[in-house]
Write a structure and sequence with these properties.
- By secondary structure, the chain is an alpha/beta fold.
- The protein folds into two domains: about 200 residues, 2-enoyl-CoA Hydratase, Chain A, domain 1; about 45 residues, Lyase 2-enoyl-coa Hydratase, Chain  A, domain 2 (Orthogonal Bundle).
- The protein is about 45% helix and about 15% strand.
- It is built from eleven helices and ten strands.
- The strands form two sheets. A six-stranded mixed β-sheet has the order 1-2-3-5-7-10, with helices on both faces.
- Helix 1 packs parallel to helix 3, helix 3 runs parallel beside helix 4 and helix 4 runs parallel beside helix 5.
- The relative contact order is 0.10.
Length: about 280
């Protein structure tokens, strides 16, 4: 597949693609392009993201996925105007709310279950379900001015679904602090909490993120798939079951072509020739 791109634009217009994409050296960038709407997770945005992630999962040329956004807000969470409009429906919006919350939950689980690493690239505010989006990604890099919060409690709507992703990435007391206070934390605090991996000055972000992603993309895609799947599965198991599962995963991994090639390449002091199987 050749490089493909949809250039991000600073303003939302009817002609502006909701997402921009670029594939280069195995790294697939997906950029949310609705800065005026604060890249909110509207039903349209969630559908577009899910469809693009499916494309990326099925494309063998894609080895790592970067998820970023245009504008000062990485993602403002659910579209509150969309939610409010649904109150005019006969059931007060209940059916719409159920559909939206399930759609969001499915999107977050899709990211976790995707066979390829997904890295959030946060250049602004990540709030509520936007913070959930960051927490759902396998890794996260942020500029030093990025901020994070789960402010639902401030408007009478506890961030219950963001809580699922947050509590699986952040220590319980830190997660509860964010959920109960609704206050923003800066990038340094987010790194201390375990929500993000690295903080990068904005001027160097593209260079550092691309290098970081290309390093991961250089690994065996088969090995990355095995490892990501095993990581999330064992987290939900008791210790003894986790070790039994991990041991069997290691055995299965050892039988793979790329494991044999990788070990031989290491012993022979040469670069491995991955077959991704």
């Amino acid at each position: 597949m050749s490089d493909t791109a949809a250039s991000p634009t600073p303003q939302d217009t009817p002609d502006t693609p909701i997402l921009g994409t670029l594939l280069h050296e195995g790294v697939y960038r997906i950029v949310m392009q609705q800065p005026k709407a604060m890249n909110a997770l509207s039903r349209q945005m969630m559908s577009a993201l899910s469809a693009e992630l499916t494309v990326a999962a099925e494309n063998p040329d894609v080895r790592v996925i970067l998820l970023g956004a245009e504008g000062k807000v990485f993602c403002a969470g659910h579209d509150l105007k969309e939610l409010t409009a649904a109150r005019a429906e006969a059931d007060g919006g209940k059916a719409t709310y159920e559909a939206i919350m399930h759609q969001c939950s499915d999107l977050m689980q899709q990211i976790v279950r995707l066979p390829k690493p997904v890295i959030a690239v946060v250049t602004g505010v990540a709030t509520a379900a936007g913070c959930q989006l960051v927490a759902s990604c396998d890794l996260a890099m942020a500029v030093d001015t990025a901020t994070f919060c789960t402010p639902g409690v401030n408007i009478g709507l506890f961030c219950s679904t963001p809580m699922v992703a947050l509590s699986r990435n952040v220590a319980p007391k830190q997660a509860m602090e964010m959920l109960l206070t609704g206050e923003s934390i800066d990038a340094s605090t987010a790194k201390d909490f375990g929500l993000i991996n690295r903080i990068v000055p904005r001027d160097y972000l593209d260079q550092v993120v691309q290098k970081y992603a290309e390093m991961i993309a250089s690994k065996s895609a088969h090995t990355l798939k095995i490892g990501k799947e095993a990581f999330y599965k064992q987290l939900e198991m008791p210790l003894d079951k986790a070790y039994d599962f991990a041991a069997q995963t290691m055995v299965d991994n050892m039988m793979a072509v790329d494991a044999e090639e990788g070990i031989n390449a290491f012993l022979q002091k040469r670069k491995p020739d991955w077959k991704d199987c």
